[in-house]
Design brief:
Radius of gyration: 34 Å
CATH class of the largest domain: Mainly Alpha
Strand content: 15-25%
Number of domains: 3
CATH topology of the largest domain: Helix Hairpins
CATH architecture of the largest domain: Orthogonal Bundle
Largest sheet: 4 strands, mixed
Order of helices and strands: HHHHHHEEEHEEEEEEHEEEEH
Length: about 325
């Protein structure tokens, strides 16, 4: 049976820390993952070797046993012993034996790469047990316990209009799988939407995890948001501010008419009830729209206008 040098496979020293091993593993797994190298058998085999090495070196119990075995193996072969004559009995884990089995995590595989592992070698199965070959030639845990997939989070960006009305997003997930996600009215930046069973797949037949969408509402050119309330500034000409009048105020649905009382000061704020954002928990309830008046002074005055304003100033004195 061929001896597997897992440290050489990952390109790390025997004193490598767990953080270093994990970092190198992620780099190599991305490089050789079958999805990134379609039809490349060499990359597929390398990917299997990397996963097997990480399975051992990332698990303290497996790594300790592997190091002990490696020391004895090197001593045996170094003294001239033939590999085929090596006594494996003391190192063979029987099917009923106690062994630590920590399959490569969902975070490392399902979320990062997607896809499956492929089989482990005879060397691994002999040394650690609890892994057998099925008819298809793929190693799977004997009597493996179904493990639910981990939850995942994805940030999505939507416009303020979509947050107001609600929308449906089409997302690509796990190997090109398309997910339709309904975004309810009233969501705000930081809202989390749970898509049950749409996350990373489980192991050994376990159910899939959940996918959480973290919403980011993009800034709007006209409106600012404060909870369920909206704020907007609207221009009002000097004559309307002084004498009173009516102006059109935009909302996220339609324009509404606002009456400006005579002698309205610059910066005056009007509250339009229930014209803000819908409440996420109760969309029938709406926040308010706060309208700030920005008085616009006339420009490019004619000679006659200047004279009239001069008379007005004298009258005010």
């Amino acid at each position: 049976m061929e001896y597997k040098d897992y440290y050489k496979t990952l390109g790390v020293g025997k004193d490598a820390k767990p953080e270093e091993i994990k970092k190198i593993y992620r780099k190599l797994a991305r490089q050789y993952h079958p999805d990134l190298n379609p039809g490349n058998k060499a990359s597929e085999e390398k990917f299997k070797e990397i996963n097997e090495a990480y399975e051992v070196l990332s698990d303290p119990a497996k790594r300790q046993k592997y190091d002990q075995f490696g020391s004895q193996w090197q001593q045996y072969t170094g003294s001239g012993g033939r590999p085929q004559d090596f006594n494996w009995d003391p190192w063979t884990t029987r099917s009923g034996g106690q062994t630590s089995t920590r399959t490569v995590t969902q975070e490392d595989l399902e979320q990062m790469f997607g896809g499956g592992l492929g089989g482990f070698s005879d060397f691994f199965e002999t040394l650690f047990g609890n892994l057998g070959r099925q008819s298809g030639g793929t190693s799977q845990p004997r009597g493996a316990r179904a493990v639910r997939g981990q939850d995942a989070e994805q940030t999505v960006q939507i416009s303020l209009e979509d947050a107001f009305r609600g929308t449906t997003l089409g997302l690509e997930w796990e190997g090109g799988r398309r997910i339709e996600a309904k975004i309810p009215p009233g969501v705000k930046t930081g809202s989390r939407i749970r898509l049950t069973g749409q996350g990373p797949t489980g192991r050994a037949g376990g159910q899939a995890g959940d996918l959480y969408l973290k919403v980011e509402v993009l800034p709007h050119p006209s409106f600012t948001r404060d909870g369920d309330d909206l704020k907007i500034s609207v221009p009002v000409d000097l004559y309307c501010a002084l004498l009173g009048g009516k102006i059109q105020v935009p909302t996220l649905e339609k324009s509404v008419e606002l009456t400006i009382p005579p002698e309205t000061a610059n910066g005056k704020v009007f509250r339009l009830r229930s014209l803000g954002m819908p409440n996420l928990k109760n969309p029938q309830e709406r926040g308010n729209l706060y309208v700030t008046v920005q008085v616009q002074l006339p420009r490019d005055l004619s000679q006659q206008e200047r004279e009239l304003f001069q008379k007005l100033r004298e009258l005010r004195k």
